Amino acid sequence: MMHALRHLYASMMINGGVDVYTLADRLGHSDPACTLRKYVHRVAGAGSKVRQAVKGMYSKAA
To answer: Alpha-carbon distance 20 to 12, whole Å?
Structure first.
């Protein structure tokens, strides 16, 4: 059960936009690559988030 909660927490943080270095630190991983291998998977709506981020960057530059 504890592992499931930890995985849920990590997944929610990634989905919420927390960077992998901060998340790795919070989870006690010395290497962010370990966090990526264990917890990162396809996130629903990720393509939309990328499009919004790019759109936001271009609108600020204009």
So the answer is: 12
Q: Which amino acid is at 43?
A: V
Name the domain count of the chain. 1
Higher pLDDT: 54 or 28? It is: 28
Domain that holds residue 17: 2-61
Alpha carbon 13 to chain centroid, angstroms: 6
* Token reading at 44: 């629903």
Give one DSSP letter per residue of 10-30, joined into a string. HHHHHHTT--HHHHHHHHT-S
Contacts with 59 (C-beta within 8 Å, 6 or more apart), sequence order: none
Whether residue 23 has pLDDT greater than 80:
yes
